[in-house]
UniProtKB/TrEMBL annotation:
Origin species: Drouetiella hepatica Uher 2000/2452
Pfam families hit by this protein: Aldo_ket_red
InterPro entries hit by this protein: Aldo-Keto_reductase, NAD(P)_OxRdtase_dom_sf, NADP_OxRdtase_dom
GO molecular function: oxidoreductase activity
Domain of life, per lineage: Bacteria
Name by which UniProt lists this protein: Aldo/keto reductase
Keyword terms of this UniProt record: Oxidoreductase
Domain NADP-dependent oxidoreductase: 22-154
Length: 167
């Protein structure tokens, strides 16, 4: 039987044109603990970890506004900005987390717009490679949330791809 790992390529495309390596980095744990809330306790260590991941050919970094209440995105920018060519930053909006144990979906169109604009500022970018709806909001018609993602994608090409992830 041939080695099945040999059939996998090193990288693949998502969304048609974003080429990602098979190993990415989910940055959720680079937040304050407990509850993934607030800034990471050792900022320099977090920067070192992120830089080392990119050195090791990790080109897909995943974060969310809810991770550390935005501090996670700031840490990524602090470590990696200006971003190397080919580094893809994915982030999510649609969750509000005012305290460590208080998390709720917030898919209101105006909230998604504010979240996206705040992520752009924190990540120091004009365009987000992959922006996702973190969780559908049962109090908001799904079509309204997705409609805002489509609007954001169309305004100034700030979003290359909008997707929906259920966490």
């Amino acid at each position: 039987m041939p080695n099945s790992l040999a059939t996998f390529s090193k990288a693949f495309a998502i969304g048609g044109d974003l080429i990602v390596n098979r190993i990415g980095y989910g940055a959720m744990r680079l937040t304050g603990q407990p509850g993934n809330f607030g800034p990471y306790t050792d900022w320099e260590e977090g920067e070192t970890l992120l830089r080392r991941a990119v050195e090791l050919d990790v080109n897909f970094i995943e974060t969310a506004e809810a991770y550390g209440s935005g501090f996670n995105e700031e840490l990524i920018a602090s470590a990696l900005y200006p971003y190397s060519s080919g580094v893809i930053i994915a982030t999510k909006g649609g969750i509000h987390k005012p305290t460590p144990n208080n998390i709720r979906a917030d898919g209101k169109p105006e909230s998604l717009r504010r979240s996206c604009e705040a992520s752009l500022r924190r990540l120091k970018v004009e365009q987000i490679d992959l922006y996702q709806l973190h969780r559908p909001d049962s109090n908001v018609p799904f079509v309204d949330s997705v409609g805002m993602l489509a609007t954001l994608k169309g305004v100034g090409a700030r979003i290359s791809m909008a997707a929906v992830g259920r966490v």
